Amino acid sequence: MSGDDWNRQELARFLRSRRGRVSPEQVGLPTGGHRRTKGLRREEVAVLAGLSPTWYTYLEQGRDIRPSTQVLDSLARVLGLTEDERRYMHTLAHGQVANPQPLEPELAAGEVMRGLVELMRGHEFPVYATNIYCDMLAWNPAATEWYDDWGAMPQEQRNFLRWVLLSPLARDRLPDWEEDTRDLVARWRSEVARWPGDERMQARIAEFAKASPAFTRFWREHDVQEHRALTRVINHPRLGARKLRIILLLSPDEPKVGAVIHYPMDA
């Protein structure tokens, strides 16, 4: 059995199991009369989700059909799925999660990663939290030493990509400035694709394009790079040039925020 076949069969089994745990009264259906089916019937799920009963039956049979993200979210609503279950269903159907939602909506944006940065306050190399717009949300003292004094900047200018593109200090701190900047833009392009229709993201693209000819040039090249670990040479004002490895940590709790951690190559 191929991977795709297994995923379709697993999705079918998963839907059947979730359907069986939802009672008619939970979704406002009458409960009178004898019901041979535990939980909801297939046709009831289909009607509540706005689907053809035949099409939904095919889905539960593991046939080779491709449910859209909207259909999956509609099924998640009808079946009362948790966010983890909804993500699992999307992964089975499409190999990735669509429209990830914070698992802890009561948390302030960036709280988890801010806490991680604070925990690593004494780390001798940069650690900072940034969002999908490249805004600097939190940083340790080493990030100030190795890059710039983010706290001294107006809040609207505390943006890592903006700093790299526009600050004269960035070209001093990053001896491979052109290569590093092209890489940053390529990584950001892959992030932008994950949030289609985000007006703030589109406004940020327009802002960078207006302010930086280099950004416009790199953006038009359409290079794409995923957020894998990388190495970067940074000129520390006292220690000189050091090659650091950089990793990005992400949490399902905060899909729009990540923590960036630096450590020396010989660590």
From TrEMBL:
Annotated CDD domains: HTH_XRE
Gene3D superfamilies: 3.30.450.180, lambda repressor-like DNA-binding domains (1.10.260.40)
Superkingdom, taxonomy of origin: Bacteria
InterPro entries from the UniProt entry: Cro/C1-type_HTH, Lambda_DNA-bd_dom_sf, MLTR_LBD
Classification via PROSITE patterns: HTH_CROC1
Name of a matching Pfam family: HTH_31
Domain spans labelled HTH cro/C1-type: 38-86
SUPFAM superfamilies: lambda repressor-like DNA-binding domains
UniProt name for this protein: Helix-turn-helix transcriptional regulator
Originating organism: Nonomuraea mangrovi
